Amino acid sequence: MQPIPGGGTLSPWVPGAFTLIVYGILVIAFIASQLFLASWLGEKKPTREKLRPYECGVIPTGAARLRYPVPFYLVAIFFLIFDVEGAYIFTWAVVYKDAGWPGTLQISFFIILLLAGLFYVWKNGGLDWRAVNRSR
């Protein structure tokens, strides 16, 4: 197959909005047809056992609303922050030679800033999981 000369936006060889829109419409139509067929052809016999939430083979007991301690969320947020930091440092390491000294100074400033934030959180007890008695 050869590209159509002067095909413009209708040519499959030239990326454009038209092909993206057609593809999007086809994907949405396919998904809608599959959902319709599944709901139309699917067997509907709701029983108590089928309506119960599936918990990996364990029969659920009690309320599903559990209160997690705040440090759990803090550690999760810290993990995300330092995970993104790792992505930035890895990206910098890939272009280390091209970045030169300005890139090294910028990543050094970035790491120092994150270490300062880590020490601040550590000093204020953000990483401490022990129960704190706040009855002052």
Written description of the protein model:
With 136 residues, the protein is mainly alpha-helical. It has a domain at 70-123: NADH:ubiquinone/plastoquinone oxidoreductase, chain 3 (Methane Monooxygenase Hydroxylase, Chain G, domain 1, Up-down Bundle). It is 60% helix and 0% strand. The chain has 4 helices and no strands. It has helices at residues 17-41, 48-51, 70-94, 96-123. Helix 3 (70-94) runs antiparallel to helix 4. The longest helix has 28 residues, at 96-123. The protein is flat, with a radius of gyration of 28 Å. It starts with 16 loop residues before the first helix and ends in a 13-residue tail after the last helix. 0% of the residues are buried. The model has no long low-confidence stretch (mean pLDDT 81).
Strand fraction band? under 5%
Count, helices: 4
Write the element-wise H/E pattern from the N-terminal end onward.
Answer: HHHH
CATH homologous superfamily grouping of the domain at 70-123? NADH:ubiquinone/plastoquinone oxidoreductase, chain 3
Biggest sheet details: none
Name given to the CATH architecture of the domain at 70-123: Up-down Bundle
Could you tell me the mean pLDDT? 81
Q: By helix and strand content, what is the structural category?
A: mainly alpha
**Would you identify the regions where 5 or more consecutive residues have pLDDT less than 50?**
none
Q: Please give the number of β-strands.
A: 0
Oligomer: single chain
Q: Shape, please?
A: flat
CATH C-level name of the domain at 70-123: Mainly Alpha
> What share of the residues lie within helices?
55-70%
Straight-line N-to-C gap? 80 Å
The gyration radius over C-alpha positions equals 28 Å
User: What is the CATH T-level topology of the domain at 70-123?
Assistant: Methane Monooxygenase Hydroxylase, Chain G, domain 1
